[in-house]
Write a structure and sequence with these properties.
Elements (H helix, E strand, L loop, with lengths): L1 E8 L3 H12 L4 E5 L8 H5 L1 H12 L4 H24 L4 E5 L3 E4 L2 E6 L2 E12 L3 E3 L5 E2 L6 E2 L1 H4 L8 E5 L3 H13 L2 E5 L11 H13 L3 E3 L4 E6 L5 E5 L4 E4 L1 E4 L3 E3 L32 E3 L10 H16 L14 E3 L5 E5 L2 H6 L4 E7 L4 H5 L6 E7 L5 E7 L3 H13 L4 H5 L11 H5 L4
Parallel strand pairs: 1-2, 1-6, 2-3, 6-18, 8-13, 9-16, 10-11, 10-16, 11-12
Antiparallel strand pairs: 4-5, 5-6, 7-17, 13-14, 14-15, 19-20, 20-23, 21-22, 22-23
Helix pairs in contact: 1-8, 3-4, 3-6
The structure holds flavin-adenine dinucleotide and nicotinamide-adenine-dinucleotide.
Flavin-adenine dinucleotide (FAD) binds next to α1, β2, α2, α3 and α8.
Keywords: FAD, Flavoprotein
InterPro entries: FAD/NAD-bd_sf, FAD/NAD-binding_dom, FAD/NAD-linked_Rdtase_dimer_sf, Pyr_nuc-diS_OxRdtase, Pyr_nucl-diS_OxRdtase_dimer
Protein name: FAD-containing oxidoreductase
Length: 442
């Protein structure tokens, strides 16, 4: 049996960050990762980074196969850097094996083909999430049916692509593959795009994505996939429509990786949705086990996983001031073209919560920067509390919104009045000066 101060299962964002920080405090740390092609985690290997390289290159006219090659180079570089950071750290031992709990304080791995048991007083689960496959009949195992991970391994651009699901992955891949030249159809069970987002904004998003040739089929499910030939499948929808495609992407959510972890040998309990149950300090129902990142459910973003590691670190070695409760506003972006970003409440949500609101609205075409960059697409909207003058939320669909949203988030966290953003001196001609106009509301 090998003894450590901490065992971290999963080389994801939270796992690698926590490993480094604990080692700096002279903890003896074991980091266990089952797949060497995943060193560094989901984000750099199969998710945020590779997809954003492809989004970027698609927008800059790079042919698909070249973009895939550049994406592979970027991923390899980042993976090597992530591996080196851990391998060079004397306080951390990296084990390449699947990990399985034996008890609350013991984890089983394979070391040089032999079973080995590691033990520690502190164990952290950071095993991430994987694609949730919908119940579709027929040839779902066909080599023309993909997840977000496998589609971006495909070297040849699919001429016709059907995407099942219109969430983050569905929309980002739709926009990205349409930019490379695929003819894309998106199938959604909802009756409109992104039902939790502002309706004016989603109408604009739909208009711009349709302008790229993307077709949306709402209020329907993919029921069956049938392989027709080496290059073609047919997708049958619940309304009986049939669509022929060269590739089908299943983008119907991601589920926490808890299978085969041996949690039945521990006091760790799961939520109704199958995520590891944690308290505000990310402690599980077993007092020496914590969970961070996608595996604990909730919002699935890299920066949430990073912030989870801050909460755990503060809880173990700090003054326990950080928790899920003290976490402030969380912005997010969908990297479609142009991108959509959001923080806080929409007007509808604010009204439902009883706020007395004022709204700001600004078409991007009215902004000088939009003319400079020759991109007039999009709409910005903000919501302000009339009584406190504080910003309640922003929905920004337009160029550079993934950067701009962080300015709004900071003003919200600081509880600044909306006039703080309205009356700033911004340089010119840039996107952020849109706030002079967007917040010019009474
Ligand atoms: C296509 C796509 C695009 C995305 N784009 C963005 C984006 O632009 N911005 C953003 O913020 N988020 C994005 N996300 C979400 C983001 O990737 C995740 O929220 C984040 O990577 C989760 O990190 P994590 O720390 O939970 O663990 P992960 O990085 O998922 O790491 C978990 C690791 O644990 C390993 N593991 C699992 N089980 C075991 C076991 N039993 N033993 C040992 N090791 C194990 C896995 O192999 C994996 O390496 C995207 C996701 C996808 C799928
Ligand atoms: N830019 C980013 O930050 C980014 C990008 C991609 C992914 N992600 C993360 O990855 C997570 C997973 O993304 P996702 O798009 O798979 O999930 P999602 O939860 O965003 O969307 C899933 C979609 O699939 C639909 N759906 C569910 N079951 C279906 C079925 N049987 N048939 C058809 N449609 C069905 C849902 O209605 C929903 O619209 C996101 O929640 C997000 O946190 C983030």
């Amino acid at each position: 049996m090998l003894t450590f101060d901490a065992i971290i299962i999963g080389f994801g964002k939270a796992g690698k960050t926590l490993a480094g920080e604990l080692a700096e405090q002279d903890w003896k740390v074991a980091l266990i990762e089952k797949d060497p092609t995943m060193y560094g985690g989901t984000c750099i290997n199969i998710a945020c980074i590779p997809t954003k390289v492809l989004v970027h290159d698609g927008l800059h006219g790079v042919p698909y196969s070249e973009a895939i090659e550049r994406k592979n180079e970027v991923v390899e570089k980042l993976r090597a850097k992530n591996y080196k950071n851990i391998a060079d750290n004397e306080g951390i031992t990296l084990f390449n094996s699947a990990a399985k709990f034996r008890s609350d304080k013991e984890v089983e791995i394979l070391l040089d083909g032999q079973q080995e048991v590691l033990t520690a007083e502190h164990i952290f689960i950071n095993t991430g999430a994987t694609a949730n496959l919908p119940p579709i009949e027929g040839d779902i195992r066909s080599d023309k049916v993909y997840t977000s991970t496998t589609l971006i391994e495909r070297k040849q651009l699919p001429e016709k692509l059907v995407i099942v699901g219109a969430g983050y992955i569905g929309l980002e891949y739709a926009s990205m593959y349409a930019n490379f030249g695929s003819k894309v159809t998106v199938i959604s069970p909802e009756d409109r795009l992104l039902p939790h987002e502002d309706e004016d904004i989603t109408a604009e998003i739909q208009k711009e994505l349709e302008a790229k040739g993307i077709r949306f089929v709402f209020g329907t499910h993919a029921e069956e996939i049938k392989e027709d030939s080496k290059d073609l499948v047919t997708v049958t929808l619940s309304g009986a429509e049939r669509i022929s495609a060269n590739a089908v992407l299943l983008a119907t959510g991601r589920k926490p990786n808890v299978e085969d972890l041996g949690l039945e040998h521990t006091g760790v309990e799961l939520t109704e949705k199958g995520a590891v149950q944690v308290d505000d300090y990310l402690q599980t129902t077993a007092s020496n086990v914590w969970a961070m990142g996608d595996v604990k459910g909730g919002m699935q973003f890299t920066y949430i996983s990073l912030d989870d590691s801050r909460i755990v670190m503060d809880s173990l070695t700090g003054d326990k001031k950080l928790s899920l409760e003290t976490r402030q506003h969380i912005p997010y972006s969908v990297f479609i073209d142009p991108p959509f970003s959001r923080v806080g409440l929409t007007a509808k949500e604010a009204q439902e919560q009883g706020y007395n609101i004022i709204e700001g609205k600004m078409p991007i075409a009215s902004h000088p920067r939009a003319h400079v960059i020759n991109d007039l697409r999009g709409l910005f909207k903000v919501v302000v509390d009339k009584d406190t003058q504080q910003v309640l939320g922003a929905s920004l669909f337009g160029p550079e919104s993934p950067e701009l949203i962080n300015l709004v988030k900071m003003a919200m966290d600081l509880k600044a009045p909306y006039t703080f953003l309205r009356d700033q001196i911004y340089n010119h001609p840039v996107m952020s000066e849109a706030f002079n106009t967007l917040f010019d509301i009474q």
